[in-house]
Amino acid sequence: MRDEGDLHSLAQTLGSAALGIGLGLGVLIIGFLVSRAALPESNVAAATTGTPAATAARSSSPTSPPAAPAPTPSPAATPRPTATPDPLVVSAFEGQGLQLAALTMPAGYTVRSPVAGTVTIVLYQYLDGEIRTDSNVATEPSYPYLFVRSADREIKLRPGAVERDVELLVTDGQTVLEGTPLFRTRTTAASSWRTFYDPEVSAQVVVSASVRASGEGIDPVPLFKK
Q1: Is the Cβ–Cβ distance between 211 and 153 less than 8 Å?
Q2: What is the pLDDT of residues 38-57, one digit of tens each?
Q3: Which residues make Cβ contacts (< 8 Å) with residue 4, sequence separation at least 6?
Q4: Are 127 and 140 spatial neighbours (Cβ–Cβ below 8 Å)?
Q5: I need a labelling partner for 160 at 20 to 30 A (CA). Which of 63, 117, 146, 196 fits?
Q6: Is the pLDDT of residue 196 over 90?
Q7: N- to C-terminal Cα distance for the chain?
Q8: Considering the entire predicted model, what is its pTM?
């Protein structure tokens, strides 16, 4: 039998071994707990670290270029007004020993003075085969002669009957400029020349011209045919 000293020594040995085992287990357990506690933080850190990368990846993805603005349509060109041709027709002819201009025009046409000067208006009637200036028969038409006298020329215009065929736009003694309206046609009836001298004439106005100083006749066509 072992003595009491050996038993005591064995007990100390076993106690030391048990203590060492206990300390080792404690260290392992603490290490395990520490590692378990640190593991979620590592996962979170890894996840957090990965997020910017994903964000950067998303940010670096190409984007569609902005749509080009639609072109502004050009404004439509404004059409330019077209000049209306003058319907006046001027023809030369002779009658009663004069050089004459026959003016043919539509109803509603305005005849303008070819020169600047003073207007004289004389009314004529055709009674019993005679040209009369001293009559005023209400039942017969009156035919105006319009004289436009400039410093060197006299222009004589013979339209149709006043009020019936033409509307006078000037008065006797009025001073006019070149281009001033003299009268406006109401119909296409012929000039008084047809009634007084030549039934073949159909022009609305017959014109003659002369030099004032000598009374010599001159060609009136260039005054109107421009």
Answers
A1: yes
A2: 554 444 444 444 454 444 44
A3: none
A4: yes
A5: 117
A6: yes
A7: 166
A8: 0.65
Residue burial 155-192, b: 16+ Cβ < 10 Å; e: rest: bbbbbbbbeebbebebeeeeebeeebebbebbebbbbb
Give yes or no for a contact between 194 and 202, defined as CB atoms under 8 angstroms apart. Answer: yes
Provide φ and ψ at 53, rounded to 5°.
-65, -45
Let me know the angle formed at the C-alpha of 90 by 98 and 163, rounded to the nearest 5 degrees: 85
List the CATH code of the domain at 89-224: 2.70.70.10
Contact 122, 134 (CB under 8 A): no
Q: How many CB atoms sit inside 10 A of residue 196's CB?
A: 17
SS3 110: strand
Place of tokens 């047809």: 194
Give residue limits of the domains in the chain: 1-57, 89-224
The amino acid at residue 3 is: D
* H helices present in the chain, as ranges: 4-59, 192-196, 221-224
